[in-house]
Amino acid sequence: MNAPLTNPLDLLDLGSTLSETERDIQRTVAAFLTDRVRPSVPKWFDDGAFPREIVPELGKLGLLGMHLEGYGCAGTSAVEYGLACMELEAVDSGLRSFVSVQGSLSMFSIHRFGSEEQKQHWLPQLAAGEAIGCFGLTEPDHGSDPAHMRTRAVRDGGDWVLDGTKMWITNGSIADVATIWARTEEGIRGFLVPRGTPGFSTRDIKNKLSLRASVTSELVLDGVRLPDSARLPLADGLRAPLTCLNEARFGILFGAVGAARDCLRTAIEYATTRVQFDRPIGAFQLTQQKLTDRALSVNTSALLALHLGRLKDAGVLRPEQVSVGKLNNVREAITTARECRTILGGSGITTEYSPLRHAVNLESVLTYEGTSEIHLLTVGKALTGLSAFAG
């Protein structure tokens, strides 16, 4: 059998367009995950457990809030952060979700909208993995429509009293601090709610078929009293949490490429060693068509992610462009995961191989941080100038 003439995971030689620093970060993250995390992921997925013990290790590696400046954060570029997300999700979407929520939602909300006192108190702990954060925006009846959230914050003297429920919150029950968004008489505002605050409780969502190696929770606020110093002073209106979501979506469009790439790698390895009819199944035309189609998808999705990353580093990335990236790359990743699973045959339904695990995880990724329909309509509005959103 002739050896492949090129790296099938990088047909377009995109690696040559990266700086040495970008390549070093990608290699360092990949090596850590290969040695420390990848062997345990199938068991974590089977057990429905998130390995909290690795959080300080992620902090030591500089992955938590890595694209933020100061306060113990690494201050990397957008592309460097994206490449780290790509490697994280190549292992498991739940792992990338943890890093994304910690850095691009919890830490970013404090970094962008918090007071200096809030930044000094929380960001170094969160960056080091000594504390965990979560982001409470989605509600049981208001997912894609956060403008109509029911959680309320009412002034009571110099304090605020919060009541409401948040749902589908990654890291919820293990978080040391929750960024909670609530409706006030002045509009939507953000608050930092520490673990243990009276009236604040959490409940993990069980029986998940997706993102099993990740903590997903309901947050309940029942008369939670906070001083005004817990309010994010620069968060004014719905634009604040949506800005945070856009940060998280950026990580997803890189992460989805990682999941798809891992599926393709697994399928190629299997197809070149699995023998049927006296030949490796990779020698059959239909298998080669599947592999070629998926390699084209992985490579063009990676090209899109890198292009958007360069735009973000240049300070010109627009929200609808992030929507293009998430919509396309998650769609393509799910198709790749499903198609690669078929190449594995019956073996593909076990946790020994990653494609089906990636496929079910990506079902959640398709939905969170804006469903595919929301991103489709965001792009549609950019194309036509006409909003299809109700109200």
UniProtKB/TrEMBL annotation:
SUPFAM superfamilies from the UniProt entry:
Acyl-CoA dehydrogenase C-terminal domain-like (SSF47203), Acyl-CoA dehydrogenase NM domain-like (SSF56645)
A GO molecular function assigned to this protein is: oxidoreductase activity
Cofactor(s) the protein requires to work: FAD
Q: Would you say which domain of life the source belongs to?
A: Bacteria
Signal peptide (residue range): none
The Acyl-CoA dehydrogenase/oxidase C-terminal domain is annotated at 236-383
InterPro entries recorded:
Acyl-CoA_Oxase/DH_mid-dom (IPR006091), Acyl-CoA_Oxase/DH_mid-dom_sf (IPR046373), AcylCo_DH-like_C (IPR036250), AcylCo_DH/oxidase_C (IPR009075), AcylCoA_DH/ox_N (IPR013786), AcylCoA_DH/ox_N_sf (IPR037069), AcylCoA_DH/oxidase_NM_dom_sf (IPR009100), Glutaryl-CoA_DH_mitochondrial (IPR052033)
Domain Acyl-CoA dehydrogenase/oxidase N-terminal: residue ranges: 19-130
Which Pfam families does this one have?
A: Acyl-CoA_dh_1, Acyl-CoA_dh_M, Acyl-CoA_dh_N
Keyword list (alphabetical) reads:
FAD, Flavoprotein, Oxidoreductase, Transit peptide
Q: Which residues cross the membrane?
A: none
> What region holds the Acyl-CoA oxidase/dehydrogenase middle domain?
134-224
**PANTHER family noted in UniProt:** GLUTARYL-COA DEHYDROGENASE, MITOCHONDRIAL
**Family the entry assigns:** Belongs to the acyl-CoA dehydrogenase family.
| Protein name, entry field | Acyl-CoA dehydrogenase family protein
Q: Which organism is it from?
A: Streptomyces doudnae
